[in-house]
Amino acid sequence: MQTRPCHVQSPRFHAKLFVGALMAIVLTLAGGACSVPRVAGQAEANVQLSACDKAMRRATRRTQLATGTAFATRDLRFAMADAAEHDWVDVAIQCPTRFEQGTLRSAQMQWLAQQLAKRVQRNYTALIVTRLDGLTDNVLPGATLAQLALSEDRVGFATEVLAGRRAVAARTNGLDGSTALAALSDDHKQASSELMSLAGNTQDLRRKVYATQTLVDSPDTMVDPATGLSAPTVAVLEMNCAREELATVQQALPNVHIDDDAKANATLDNELCQLSLLIATHAVTAFQMGYPSFDLALFSATPPAAQS
């Protein structure tokens, strides 16, 4: 799939937000008899919030509505989850210390929106990005992009190995799944190639072939070394690719200094948006394949050590 333009708000968002806002107003009025009086200067103080603070408040508020079940209807929850998935990407862009949080929260909201869409019988398309065609310039160091390329290449190889094993199993036992894994492998390798191309003259860390013992020993399920949780092997591979890449970008951001250069800022915003969407796609893919999406599985994990 081609890269998605980095518009933070969904093109289908505003109509649903209008309906959701009306429902939220009704809920607010219902509980408004004991509302807190306005504090003098509060609105003025809010106007002075940084872009990061505004993004965090908006994302947090909509996430609370999306995950709350006491008063919110499923329609409202779906609308808010669909909005929050974009809001958290905005957090990843606007908040240098929250790239990881914004990306994983966006993935969680995409997964929740998928589940709610089925219940309320709504059409829904997640923010799936598997290629970086629209990323033609970069601000992040070439070494960072080379490390990301390595992560993509490694998981691309692993899914290719698993696809081969399933193809053999299909011929003998009638099992299926190799075609989807082969396509997933191709997506990772394409992203790896695009990232390395952007890295310029930086050393290429990719090996093309990596150790396979873990895949041979645990082709179906494995214990995630980052959490100790057992999950389908492909799901663990996808999630750990996401974790590696989040750690790589997060580590690089404090050293990026572009001051008031408008062009460089716009380039960085687009770069972070595309990378956040790509990494969130890995996480959503992991959820679809059986990886748990609750906070403890995502935010208390340690990035896995690089494997040969």
Automatic annotation (TrEMBL):
It comes from the Bacteria. This is Lipoprotein. It comes from Bifidobacterium gallicum DSM 20093 = LMG 11596.
